Amino acid sequence: MSQRSVTRIAMATIYLSSTYEDLKDHRRVVYEALRKAGHQVIAMEDYVATDQRPVEKCLKDVEKADIYIGLFAFRYGYRPPREHNNPHDLSITELEYRCADTNKKPCLTFVVQDTTPWPRVLDDAHTGDDRGERIKALRQHLLTEKLASQFSSPHELSTLVLAAVTKHLDEQKQPESVKKQESVEATITWDIEKLGSPYPGLMHFTQKYAPVFFGRKVDVQAVLDRMHGQDGRFIIVSGDSGVGKSSLVDAGILPKLVEGGLPGGESCECVRIVPSQRQDPWSSLLVALGGLVTRAGLRPDALVEQLNQSPNALSNLLRKITKDSMNGRALVLFLDQMEELFTAQDATKTRQFLAELYRAAQEKTVWVLATIRSDHLHHCHGHAEMRAVLGSKGHHPLGPIEPFMLEDLITFPARCAGLHISDDLARRIVYEAGSDPGNLPILAFLLNQLCEKRHDRELTTEGYLALGKVAGAVKQHAEQVEADLEKKEGSKALALLPQLFQSLVTVNADGAPTRRRPLRSALPSEMNRLLTVLIDARLLRTEGDDVGGTVSISHEKLFEAWPSLKGYVEANKKQLIDQRLLEIRAQKWEELGKPWFDGLASGREYHDFRRSMAAATPLTKAYLDASARARWIQAGAIGMVMLFMAGGGTWLWSTGLTVEQAFLRAQSQLMSIHLVPTMETVSAGTFRQGESKQSDESPVREVTIKSFAMGKYEVTFEEYDRFAIAEGRSVPSDQGWGRGRRPVINVSWDDAKAYAEWLSRQTGQRYRLPTESEWEYAARSGDKQENWAGTSQDAELEEYAVYGKNSDGRTAEVGTKRANGLKLHDLSGNVWEWVEDCWHKDYNGAPSDGAVWGESHRGDCGQRVVRGGSWATDRGPCVRLTGSGTPPTTGPTSLASVSSRTLSPNPLPFVLLPFTSDSAWQISYLRGLWG
After folding, report:
1. What pTM does this model have?
2. Number of domains making up the chain
């Protein structure tokens, strides 16, 4: 039996400590996992924490245990009387921890992340007699002095606990001589003079860095174990951006495979493929295979054409390549950054590529190791083959590296290179790196810079401070690179940065920035010097040969850490979204056979797309040219329609329509005239709904909401008028206040429903009103429990809401006030907002899952609920997010409608519109709707 197997079944007596009510679910999962692993667990719930005897027994059991495990959230816990040997007024939980620490027990501590949604009633900051000061101090001590691991869910916690216990037992089983050797063995494994820094900076750890890759031993072995299993031919490693997925595979797993880690010790050759290296996945694959293809007597360009026409030829082609150019060795494909198949590729080709790659793996032609960001994992749900991988043992979710492993990642590579870093500095870096799972690239960059600025062979605190510490290292470096460039090359070089960024940046389906990889040869020659400087500074990277080489931003973490890049993205967000949408529309138009009218851009959308032409491709240029041609043809046709109507003596504007509205009416006879609204995603969560001081909003209760999307702004006249005109309805009065971007007023609940149904038909998506719970959850910024939509501070109300005090007696254009924490505007004030629910006198019997509340429990569906206050109300309704009942046929000037939409795993998400009761609706366009 191997030593690894022995450590798995090693027995230990573990004392499990925590407060009770707030962590009972977490402790239950941990308790069961430890018992299942064969450990004896002493659980604190076996005692009653109200007298002295159990306290003494708890502390004696801590002394007997082999390992102490402490779980900490936001409650300090019961404090025994001072006369019971507790002079410092500590809680039982802290007494247990102090006892373990004093007796030098291994203390494995785990702390709930600050950002984790947590019930207010279980948080001392809201309910404690000390306003949470004791638990805050204890948490700070554990995070800084004990490098406590952080968690957000019960199952994540159980995984962390088992990993920490396993690591501790592994270390205990090793003889001291082995431990000592491991701590210094690296002094001969990395020649710093020849190989440079043992830290890769913003790049990931490649196979070159295998001798200095630490901290992921458990994950490396887990993936190798999966590859030896029944479902091991196709493995997906998922994790957050920056968590180290590429490094795990490239520096951790692939070297093991080359050394004989495949089943039976089979020899292999490993090839890395990045999907966005070329325009389609087949081209990217053939570029990655490189010389293997030509050595097999094949032409890459011919193979790309063959695979585009016959994707099912892949398995035979790979079989020929392995036979003719690899002497029968196995081929391992490392499909890195798999999300790029979904964000920058043709959907049909992506589907074919994944299906055939999976089939080739199952036919034992190839091994596949893929990495994908967790926030893109849902794309796999639309592919049967990928669902099969995710549903089997072929999926390895990679969690954040824990503090005790992070310290190894910092200190061991330095020792490998014969360098020294003090324990104090290492611990400080671990603490200041924080709990963000994506901080690894920033940390590796800092260590790389620290290594370059070493004093003799010492990585010093002075050097660390000079670099700006963890938070400022990249920022300081990027600004220095730009300053040096301007000094040497002049301001013209820096003036090219925005143009370069436009070629290197796109957005994903959620509107978040992500990387492009254009060919370096396709970029203007005047950028060559700028590119060279940024590549040498490791802010950009190149891949491939000179002719086919690509250039890209080194890591996605630079979108936050590089000030110039961050500023560019913020200033050009709308243009980047339009550019992304243009590319998707152009692809779909090409798939349809490039029709003369269908799928082309028109109106405001066309003008938005024209502004995105700086990074245009031949396809997007052709699409816009076709759109311009169609616009001229349509304009002529509309003119004919209007002349025909005029000839009949029926000028449209004689019926009360303006000239612009009359033109829209004529246009609607030929095409859809709807505007697609802007949406913001609202993540799932739990919050406390209601107001105890309001009889119709009590009792206060916890409600769990599923993810959905809501309109960024209230629905405007500009949007609603198109519905009314197209459907032959009367356009609502604007009270003389103006139309355009003002929220539409004088619309009833029935009007709101009709608009949602019409928009659903026009877009092919499902729009509806929100439920009352969904509306309040969005208004309170999720679980932040804000009094207003955006703030709980009286002094800040005017920044977020248009209401009686600042409205000047009328509505304001949407978006003139600040958005709340979910990027939604005007949920307090401006116009009342319709929701789906029927009126009830209170919340007794209300659903706890955020569903629509209809006629049950004496609901009155002759009245519908409105929320949020308006331009005419005082601060009261805004503060309490008041709801009230209004007949569904009513459309007073103080009412509006809000729109939102739910998200589903379908390629095009269903849409949900919450409507306000003030005549202004809130619908907006979800970035990447068409992605």
Report:
1. 0.53
2. 6
